[in-house]
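Notes from hallway chat w/ T.B., transcribed later so I don't forget. T.B. wanted the structure written out for a chain they're using in a teaching module, and asked if we could keep both sequence and structure tokens in one place. Agreed to drop them here.
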Amino acid sequence: MISFSFPTQMIDILLRGTMIFLLLFWHGYWKYSERHADKQRPKTAGHLKKYSLQWFARCILTTLYFLLPLQLMGFSIFPFSAQTPGQLLGLLLALFGFFLSVWARKALGVNWAHAAEYQVKKKQELITRGIYHYVRHPIYTGIACMLIGSELVAKSWLWFFLMPLLFVGAYLQGKREEKLLVSHFGDEYKNYMKRSKMLVPFVY
């Protein structure tokens, strides 16, 4: 009988390595874009309060960003015996989230501000072009897909627990931001809300 364990192990290593590279590239792009945006359009005073819901959410996401590379390098947390197709599905989902979040970030340009800071930047523009023509918070959707996909590649059941937490968190944060944007842009943003979806294009 011919054993296929060696090719399967090599595919596993390749998928994990690809995922690590993708996460590192995304993180580098995010940091570079943040510095550029803050330089071109300075921040106003932030509103992140210690021990607030946003503070805890940021702590959880920061923990995941550090934990994921360790998982992808073999540190198992709630592991399951996934076949290669399950990992491939995870990589495709992560790639979708990567391109969605980067596309949205480029569309925002210097108007981007960190969600936890809960602010409208100086001379803020309302961006409704590109992916923002269809959905108002595509970065949150993209990050959620990327994290869930990464956990699938790492063969961890954390993807199952993260999925509702990430999308509920994105919904609550999105609603909070929309109150701020309505107060700043007024009817312009209200009309934009009527013709776009919140998190998933053409769905919700």
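Follow-up for T.B.: The mean pLDDT is 84. Might be a good example for the class.
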